[in-house]
Amino acid sequence: MSQNNHEHHHVLPLKVYLGVATALLVLTIITVVVAQFHFGEFNLIIAMAVAAIKATLVALYFMHLRYDSRIYAMVFVGSLMFLAVFIGFTMLDTMRRGDIYKEIAHPIHDAKIYHQSAAPADTTHLAADTTHSAQSPAPAGH
Amino acid sequence: MSSSTEHAEHTSHVAHHFVDAEQQKDSAKLGTWLFLLTEVLLFGGLFCFYSIYRSWNPEIFHSAHQFLDVKLGATNTVVLIVSSLTMALAIRSMQLNMKKQTILFLIATFLLASTFMVIKYFEYTHKIHLGQLPGKWYTFTGVEGSNPHIFFSAYFLMTGLHGIHVLGGMGLILWLIIKTSKNRFSPSYYTPIEMTGLYWHLVDLIWIFLFPLFYLIG
To answer: Radius of gyration of chain B from Cα atoms?
Structure first.
């Protein structure tokens, strides 16, 4: 609660707002100029780094997180941590799945699946069902 | 604690279930930040969608993004940054009890938001005209490679949801202009302006990421 001794209305000097806005505009120019060159993978990294700096400036000064009670910053950073888990783990899955399983694209043999899961008594009934479902297109790779 | 002196004056805006104006404001602020958390996660789903499909189709995202106009996107980025500045200055003016200036800054914010939407309108109508539409409505044939509609699905979903947020913000700012001109706010009570400001800055913040992700694919 040490952060809570702020005055009732924390009025920032005008030059702070103008300075932050100028920095945001300069960073926008930088990100547009950098995108004209081709650094391969680094283009995305640079663009995201510049965007992160801009977002930090907006959050700290325009949204007053630097001067407000820490609880609001915790809520905001908390949301970003959930977002990082959400996107990070999804990307680990979608990009690295092949490292664990060998992905082989081949048509799914409907009949085999039906016979494995069905009780032996029902085979004649299911055989008819199988020929019918074999006409539906097999799911593609992804 | 520190607010005992301010509390001596009559504070009609404090609801009876709050101890004082400061507690009421802190509650509103915490509630707003929790709302912004849900907004981050709402857009987060779309950012996740974007990440997966861009990593699967890097060449499509590169060739399709060339159909976006960097000049219009950059202009809109500048427009939103300046509107964030005018919003912050509107709050500052109210803190300093300059009502007229507050209204002027709010009107400026509203006009900048309208500018953003007008530019977005021209971008959208151009793409709709060319048939660069999401999913099954995609009819454009000028992009090389398979499944270019994925890029435009992401583009329309993410900028569209963002645009809806800009429209919502414009409604809130209009409401603030009316309330401010009716003398509903003072340096001791301007919570709605401050909370709308937080929301407006988040909308700007999301665009800060959308702009490089769609217009500046290297």
So the answer is: 21
Q: Would the CB atoms of B201 and A62 count as touching at under 8 Å?
A: yes
8 Å CB contact of A79 and B218 = no
pLDDT in tens, B14-44: 888 888 888 899 999 999 999 999 999 999 9
User: At a CB cut-off of 8 Å and minimum separation 6, what does B212 contact?
Assistant: A31, A35, A47, A48, A50, A51
B53 vs A contacts (CB less than 8 Å): none
Give burial (CB, 10 Å; 0-12/13-18/19+) of A62: buried
Kindly give the residue spans of alpha helices, DSSP state H, lying in B96-190.
99-130, 149-181
Q: Which of A5-9, A56-60, A84-88, B62-66 has the lowest mean pLDDT?
A: A5-9
Length of chain B (residues)? 218
ipTM confidence: 0.89
Structure-token match 């700290």, residue found: A60
User: For position A2, what pLDDT does the model report?
Assistant: 38
Query: Using an 8 Å Cβ cutoff, are A52 and A86 in contact?
Result: no
The answer to whether the CB atoms of B37 and A79 lie below 8 A apart is yes
Q: A119 by DSSP, 3-state: which?
A: coil
Q: CB of B170 within 8 A of CB of A35?
A: no
Domain ranges, ordered by start, for chain A: 2-100, 109-137
pTM value is: 0.82
Q: State the DSSP code for B186.
A: B
Residue in A78, A95, A142 closest to B55 by CB: A95
Contact A12/B77, CB-based, under 8 Å? Answer: no
Residue located via tokens 């930088």: A30
Which superfamily is assigned to B20-215 in CATH? Cytochrome c oxidase, subunit III, four-helix bundle (1.20.120.80)
State the pLDDT at residue B17: 87
pLDDT at B200: 98
Three-class DSSP category at A9: coil
- B96, pLDDT greater than 90: yes
